[in-house]
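Postdoc handover notes: sequence design on the structure in folder B. Input tokens:
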């Protein structure tokens, strides 16, 4: 660069962009994942009762009793409470078990090998900001090297190429390739935010009492955005945790009174102990342990599970609030 103005311009925009990208990347990697609170784990008595009798009727009874009072809307395809056999805990809405992290993750989106961490409730905002700033950084690198890239190839055509500037070619192509890859990923997650879905929910539709509904958590563009980025506008584009909610209960467009698991199953549990019917609708159901969170895009490699065989008595963690040190 020959012009001082051009040099100053590049310095002013380059370093803040680099700092924001690395800041968001750091927060995505090192923010601990949010785990379900102890209230979702089976008590020692319930766990003993649960494991002593493997019959479906007993499992149904124990889980129904344990789910009373918990803020649950989602259920399994058979209409039962979502339960993790590996963690021995009831799954909060939108939570899934990650086989890599060996834990149930609140509002799990996916496990990202590039950050070696699960992306979920506690760091989803940081992940999106990282994608956005990394995209801008890649475009910046490609655009600022474009004139030198053109000059290099023009020199080849005239026979005056300076091979010492070959690194300019590498920088330009690297910037373009990363920008194209990041653009598709960033655009996809912007779409998910606009619909209030996670990556898992885009492949496996959440199931409510009224049935599967891919737009069950879609509250409109503005509320969907603030659920991830918060209501404080000055922090929207900074890697500071501002997401709304607690990671356990979520607003939904479906009437809560008609679809809440605890309301429906509380009455079912009462009927179970007072009469022959085991369910509020009188239809027999069973608890089925399934692995229905399978990543079909990774050659069938399982990255998250709904249930499993490993036993773990529960979590020692309370719900993590990333705003606390």
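Designed sequence:
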């Amino acid at each position: 660069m020959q012009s001082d103005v051009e040099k100053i311009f590049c310095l002013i925009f380059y370093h803040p962009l680099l700092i924001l990208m690395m800041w968001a990347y750091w927060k995505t990697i090192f923010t601990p994942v949010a785990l379900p609170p102890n209230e979702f784990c089976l008590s020692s008595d319930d766990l003993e009762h649960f494991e002593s009798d493997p019959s479906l009727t007993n499992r149904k009874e124990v889980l129904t009793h344990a789910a009373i009072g918990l803020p649950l809307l989602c259920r399994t395809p058979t209409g039962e409470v979502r339960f993790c056999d590996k963690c021995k805990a009831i799954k909060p809405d939108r939570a899934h078990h990650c086989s890599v992290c060996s834990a149930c993750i609140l509002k799990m989106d996916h496990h990202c090998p590039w950050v070696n961490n699960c992306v979920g409730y506690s760091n989803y905002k940081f992940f999106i900001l990282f994608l956005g700033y990394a995209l801008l950084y890649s475009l910046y690198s490609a655009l600022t090297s474009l004139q030198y890239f053109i000059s290099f190839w023009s020199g080849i055509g005239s026979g005056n190429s300076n091979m010492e500037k070959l690194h300019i070619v590498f920088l330009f192509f690297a910037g373009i390739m990363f920008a194209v890859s990041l653009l598709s990923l960033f655009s996809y997650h912007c779409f998910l935010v606009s619909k209030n879905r996670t990556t898992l929910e885009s492949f496996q539709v959440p199931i409510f009492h009224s049935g599967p509904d891919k737009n069950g958590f879609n509250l409109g563009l503005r509320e969907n955005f603030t659920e991830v980025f918060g209501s404080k506008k000055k922090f929207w584009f900074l890697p500071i945790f501002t997401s709304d909610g607690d990671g356990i209960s979520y607003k939904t467009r479906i009437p809560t009174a008609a679809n809440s698991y605890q309301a429906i199953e509380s009455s079912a549990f009462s009927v179970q102990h007072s009469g022959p019917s085991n369910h509020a609708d009188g239809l027999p159901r069973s608890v089925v342990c399934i692995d229905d969170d399978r990543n079909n895009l990774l050659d069938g490699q399982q990255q998250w599970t709904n249930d499993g065989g490993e036993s773990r008595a529960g979590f020692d963690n309370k719900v993590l609030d990333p705003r606390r040190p």
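Context for whoever picks this up: The longest strand covers residues 96-98. Don't rerun without checking with the PI first.
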